C-alpha cells in the first residue's frame, strides 16, 4: 500500500509536470500567434426582439493554430490573461472589431449596427486603454456608438483599481461608446451597484434564460431583472437563447434583444455580412 501510494504520488507529479510543459509550450505559441496572424474574430448576431433585425454583433476570439486547428477561448484566454498577453491581443481585438464595424457601416447605411468586444479588466487597467479605443475608432473612421465594450460584472467589481476603471468607462461612455455589463447575475454583486456604474446595457447570463421554462406561473428571476434594468434606463440583452419557447417568454418579459444559437452560432466575417444582407431584404 505504501508503494502504491508512492506511485500515485509520482504519477501525480509527472502529470503535473506534463501539464506545466504543455502550458509553457502553449504560452510560447501564443506569444508568436499575434505576429503570425493566427487570431481571428467570429461574430454572433444580437437581434432586437421588437423588429427582428440585427442590432449588433459580439466579436468572439478564435485562435487558428497551424498544428492544432481552431481553438476556442476557454482553452487559451485564462493563459493569455495570466501571462499579460491579453493586453496586446485585446488591443488587436478592438482594432479588428472596429474594422469589421466599418465594413458593416458601409454596407448598411440606414441601420446602425454595433460591434461588441470583450474587454478584460487587465486591459482596462492599462494607462493607455482609453487612448487605444479612441485611436481604433479614429483609424476605422467609426462613430463611437458602433462600438460596445463588454466588461464582466464580478471581475469589474473585484478589480484593484475600481475607481479608475469606472472613470475610464465613464470617459468612453461620454464619447458615445456603449458599455455593457457581461454575464450579469452570475456574480454576487448587488443590483444596487448598477446605478453607480456607467453602463448602457446588461447582458443577462444564459443560466437565467435556461431557468425560464421551469418558472411556471411564477415571475422568473429574469423577469424581475429585466424590469429593474429598465427602471434604471438600461437596455437588456439575453444570452444563450437556444429555443423558440425561451424567445417567446423573453418577449413577454420585454427583453430588448437576444443572442444565441436560436438565431445563429458565432460565424466568420463573410457569413456575418451575409446574415445582415438577408436581414435587409426581409
Ligand atoms: P461570453 O462573453 O459570455 O460569450 C458568450 C459565449 O457563449 C461564447 O462562447 C458564445 O459562443 C457562447 N454562446 C452564444 N450563444 C450560445 C448558446 O445559445 N448556447 C451556448 N451553449 N453557448 C452560446 P465563446 O466564443 O467560446 O467564448 C467564451 C468566452 O471567452 C466569452 O464568454 C468571453 O468571456 C471570452 N472571450 C471571447 N473572446 C474574447 C476576447 O476577445 N477577449 C476576452 N478578454 N475574452 C474573450
Ligand atoms: Ca461577452
Ligand atoms: Ca456573457
Ligand atoms: Ca461567459
From TrEMBL:
**Keywords attached to this entry:** Cell membrane, Membrane, Transmembrane, Transmembrane helix
List localization entries: Cell membrane
Q: Which GO terms describe its cellular component?
A: plasma membrane
Residues in domain EAL? 23-280
Protein name according to UniProt: GGDEF: diguanylate cyclase (GGDEF) domain protein
Could you read off the lineage of the organism from its UniProt record? Bacteria, Bacillati, Bacillota, Negativicutes, Selenomonadales
Q: Which residues of the full protein are shown?
A: 593 to 874 of 874
